[in-house]
Amino acid sequence: MFFLLTLLGAPAHATTPGTTTTAPASSTATTVLRGRASWYGSYFQGRRTTSGERYNRFAYTCAHKTLPFGTRLRVTNVKNGKSVVVRVSDRGPFRHQRIIDLSEIAARPLGVVECGAATIVAEVVAANTPLGPATTPKNLAALFAADPNPNAAFATYKVPAAIEPTAAPETTTEKATLIAASPASKAQVMTATETANCPAGFLIQAGSFVDEANARSVQARIKSLLPDVNVQVAQDLLDGRQRSRVLVGNFNERPEAEAVRQQLLMWGIGGLVREVALR
For residues 52 and 35, is the Cβ–Cβ distance under 8 A? Predict the structure, then answer.
């Protein structure tokens, strides 16, 4: 997962990937964030967060890199239309281009616990908005379509108050219509990053390389040391540059993956354990 105690003091508005400027809520516009969300594992329970409070897996909280502590967000899974209101209490996430890290109770109604991660739209809402499961925005498709950088990994932008969401609940049919109404290019992005059947398990990322030859070398070494373990090289595009990641596993349980990671570390091969869905 992600570091709880890391503090990042950058401003909080991005209209291009990796670029941020301050974007407070106002009466004429709503701040919207689009990107990938993940969640805290139960092993973080009770640890102190960057805000000073203890992490509580049963409280509707989240981590964000820059939004002020106490900011409330309505987070909606763009694939299933489920929404929840959370409060920013920590800094993060700092890996895998995730924009928000949800507490376990907040992640469950969105389906994030099952999938490990999900593409979401999050709106900054009033400070007195009740925390917990919320109604889906009637204009979810409009909020999603307002994204000025649909092909970027993430974005933060403003939408006029005229298309702010209403609180009226929708029927299942209406929710499906809203999501289906998203522009084709964005729907394709969702399809590429979400799966209907969420995989379960863990793997070890044993390095990310610009030079594929280096990745293949590490792959060959691990195969020679652990001939019974699956080792693959995955190709990804990060910040416009091709990256080759060495992936070890799949493992059913995190402790099993951690044991292999420690074994690799003894051989001088660093790595980190990742949930299979976080790719």
Answer: no
pLDDT digits (tens, 9 = 90+) for 134-165: 988 888 888 888 889 887 778 999 998 755 44
Taking each continuous run of H as one helix and of E as one strand, the counts in the chain are 7, 12
Class of residue 38 by CB neighbours under 10 A (exposed 0-12, middle 13-18, buried 19+): buried
From the list 30, 32, 104, the residue with the least C-alpha distance to 62 is 104
Strand segments, DSSP code E, in the chain are 29-39, 61-63, 72-77, 83-90, 98-102, 118-125, 132-134, 155-160, 202-209, 231-238, 241-251, 272-275
Least confident of 9-13, 122-126, 190-194: 9-13
Cα-based distances in Å from 221 to 11, 226, 233: 42, 9, 13
- pLDDT tens-digit profile of 207-249? 989 999 999 999 999 999 999 899 999 887 666 678 899 999 8
**pTM score, two decimals?**
0.55
Q: What are 27-54's pLDDT values in tens digits? A: 578 899 998 899 987 778 999 999 999 9
Q: With contact defined as beta carbons under 8 Å apart, do 172 and 60 qualify?
A: no
d(C-alpha 200, C-alpha 277), whole Å: 7
What's the DSSP call for residue 54? B
Q: Which residue has the tokens 């596993």?
A: 249
Dist CA 13 CA 157 (whole Å): 7
| Class of residue 266 by CB neighbours under 10 A (exposed 0-12, middle 13-18, buried 19+) | exposed
